[in-house]
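#help-structures

NK: newbie question. if I give both the sequence and a SMILES, will the prediction place the ligand too? trying with zinc ion
OV: yes, paste both and it writes out the complex. here, I ran yours:
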Amino acid sequence: MNLNESLVDEMVRLEYSREDAVVFVRAKGKCEYCGVDLIHNRIAWDSVQFDHIIPKSKGGSDKTDNLALSCKICNNAKMTFYPQGVTREELLLSAKAHISERRGHADDFYMKVSKIFNEHGYSSENST
Ligand SMILES: [Zn+2]
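OV: that's the protein plus ligand as structure tokens.
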């Protein structure tokens, strides 16, 4: 894995544990389930959580391999789901499928509201 070690070091200087810093940098600051950018938006930033891919309550470890950077919405949708797979990638894919199914209704509703706003000229891209 090509981890930006100097960025990890800077995160540690900001009082992150080495493990959390590694998780953050490995994920490039994005939710590993839905891809939302958690770094460049102040509100998204408040949604940052560290998810145990295999839930701690079901024997998952605190090691970085079992941690995923997650937004609050995905972490809430995942709850204590036990993903299937052997490699980290397989476990993430399994969790992603579960989360996307659980988020489906809320995401559809959000898209409808967002579309209506756009149709009425309220574009999120051009707001200042
Ligand atoms: Zn997410």
